[in-house]
Amino acid sequence: MSEKKSSKSVKAPAKQSQANAMIAARLKTYYDELVEEGTPDHFLDLLERLDAAEQAAKSKSDKA
After folding, report:
1. Phi, psi at residue 39, to the nearest 5°?
2. CA angle 40, 41, 44 (to 5 degrees)
3. Which residues in the chain show pLDDT less than 50?
4. Does any domain span residue 46?
5. Side-chain-side CA neighbours of residue 8 (13 Å)
6. Buried b / exposed e across 19-32, counting CB within 10 Å, b at 16+?
7. What average pLDDT does the chain have?
8. Range of the domain at 34
9. Residue 38 lies in a domain
10. Does a structural domain hold residue 51?
11. The pTM of the whole model exceeds 0.90
12. pLDDT, tens only, 25-39
């Protein structure tokens, strides 16, 4: 009976390790795809408008 437990306990960590490796590989692939996509133009436009608004607010507070 102890032989069955030991063989199961050896297989479980191996399966877990294999599952973790597969998850890690898929996450890396997904991350790499996101990085390659770059930042969408509408998001860059929004960032530029926010920067301009921040600069305008700062210049108003400097004049006051």
Report:
1. -95, 130
2. 95
3. 1-2
4. yes
5. 5
6. eeeeeeeeeeeeee
7. 86
8. 13-62
9. yes
10. yes
11. no
12. 999 999 999 999 988
